[in-house]
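Dear colleagues,

As part of the handover before I leave the project, I'm documenting each prediction I ran so the next person doesn't have to rerun anything. This entry is a single chain, and its sequence is reproduced below.
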Amino acid sequence: RMLSSLEDQGAVTRGPDGTSYAIGIGLVELAGAIDATAALATAVRPHLVWLSDQLGEAAGFSIPTGYTIQYMVQVESPNPVQVRDYTGLMVPMHIGPSGLCVMAQWPAEEVDRYLSRPLEAYTAHTVVDAGEIRDRLEAIRGSGHCWIHEEFAEGINSVAAPVLADGKRVRGAVHVHGPAYRFPDQGRADSIATLVMDAAARFSSRSDTV
């Protein structure tokens, strides 16, 4: 029964004798996708290390998975007071700055479909109003980055910038997050966003070859 289920998914193929099995194309494609994701995580890490060193906070990279954003890799802050490692976590697109940066690159009809659904709030600060989210997406397209303040988790602020391939296709987003009491430092929000955008732009050009 297990082999039959795997055969239905394309993970294995039945041999000519009807009793033997071989690895199927579905499993090969899955392995290829995993390899590509691992290569992307390896390629982005130096950019995240640089950001973390510059800002003293945790830096990460997220990728879109349907209507969610997945935290793929994170470099820890050198600061003794840190946020948790969110690697592997998947959250709705509207919850954090990385997802919003990805959404800002979507065609209008895809944004409409997303916003027509019930939108979950993670904290009392999460923006779930469709009109406000549309305004934020427009602002992201103009500024090239997105800040959120305690919308993903109480006590955590985050900023992100999109990573594009071929200058237009969104691959994901680079983000930095830290405790709200110290991040961003007063008067540094714009300069921090610039550093994040610079890192995302450098990785965008590098990721075209990954």
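Strands lie at 12-14, 21-23, 58-65, 68-75, 90-92, 146-149, 156-165, 169-179. Residues 25-55 form the longest helix (31 residues).

All the best with the project,
I.
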